[in-house]
Amino acid sequence: PQALFLMNSKFVAEQAGAVAKDIANLPPKDRAEKMYVKILNRSATAAETDGALSYAAAFQKQFPKMQESDAWQSLARILFASNEFIYVD
């Protein structure tokens, strides 16, 4: 149920959109790094930054009619659904 909430929640979509809007004016690499800081409260590793950039590029290639911010909003939703965001050590 928790995963479905995160995938389908209007609240989560709005928050992901707010993150995407907040990072929109940054260069792509900085977007990925700031997104990790905002959502997971830590810096992204080099591999995570590369993965985020690859994901955003693949998203735009697969959905060319969507805006670039939609790719970053989608990535934000993925981070919101991550174990690292959901569970506290």
In short:
By secondary structure, this protein is mostly helical.
What does this structure look like?
This protein is mainly α. Helix content is 76%, strand content 0%. The longest helix is centred in the middle third of the chain and has 17 residues. The chain is globular. The two termini are 21 Å apart. The mean pLDDT is 92.
Helix content: over 70%
Element order: H for helix, E for strand: HHHHHH
* Number of H- or I-type helical stretches: 6
| Poorly predicted sequence stretches spanning 5 or more consecutive residues | none
Largest beta-sheet details: none
Arithmetic mean of pLDDT:
92
Distance between the termini: 21 Å
How many beta-strand elements? 0
Q: What Rg do the Cα atoms give?
A: 12 Å
Strand content: under 5%
Q: What shape does the CA trace take?
A: globular
Structural class call reads: mainly alpha
Helix and strand layout, with pairings?
Elements: H1 2-8, H2 10-23, H3 28-40, H4 46-62, H5 68-80, H6 83-86
Helix pairs in contact: 2-5, 3-4, 3-5, 4-5
What key attributes describe this structure?
89 residues, mainly alpha, globular
